[in-house]
Design brief:
The chain has about 230 residues and is of the alpha+beta class. It has a single domain (about 10-20, about 60-229), classed as Cyclophilin-like (Cyclophilin). It is built from 3 helices and 12 strands. The protein is globular. About 40% of the residues are buried.
Length: about 230
Amino acid sequence: MGINMKKLSLTVAVAILSMFSITSIHAAEKPMTVPGCKAPTAKAHNPATVKEPMAITKNLPKTMTIETNCGVIVISLLANKAPFTISKLSALVKAKYFDASFCHRLTTDGLFVLQCGDPTASGSGNPTGWKGFRDENLPANTPNNYPTGTVAMANSGPGTNGSQFFLIYADTTLGPNYSIWGKVTKGLDLLKKIAEVGAYKINPSDNKPYYATDGYPIQTVEIKKITVK
C-alpha cells in the first residue's frame, strides 16, 4: 500500500476538520484525545503560491522543527542525501506555506504514518504552480525499508513530489518510491500517542464517524509553525 495523495474535495476536508467538536466516534472504545494537545485554530485553505527553487540551495539547513498543537517534532535533515528535496521544502518553510495547516492522514495497520503538508487538508493539495519534482535517496526494496523515525515525501508516482510528506512512527515496508529526507529526533513518542488514539472516516450512508485504519487522525494535529536552521 502506497503513500499516494488521497483525492477528497476541499469542501469535504473543511467540513470534516471543522466538525471536530464531535464528542464520540461510533462505538468509541479508546480515548479521543492525546493529553496536552490544544484545540486547533487553523482552517483548511488553498495552497499558497511560492517561487519554486530549481537548483540546490547553498547552505542547506540541518534541522527542521515542527510546532504542533500537541507538541514539538524535530527532524534531522539529510542534506547530503536529499539536497534537492530539502531545497524545495526549505523554500516552502521560509514562505510559511505549512503554517496553520493540518496533518490530514493517519494509518495504523501495516502502514504506520502520519501524513502532513497539504494546506487543503484533502490529500490532493500542493504548491500552486509547481509541476512536481524528482525523487532522490530512495531505499532498497527490502522489508522495513522505511524504519521508525523516517521522514519521506508522499507522491502520486515518479517525479510528482510537492509539499506532502509523511512521518513513520513504526517500522514500515513500502515500495521504494518515496524520497527519504529526514529522521525524527524528537517527538516520536508524540506520534505514537496520536496513533494510539487512531483514525476515522465518515460513513456516507449515515454521516457518522467510524474508526478506520486509514483516515483522518481522531486527535486533530495542527501544524502551528515550521522552521529550519
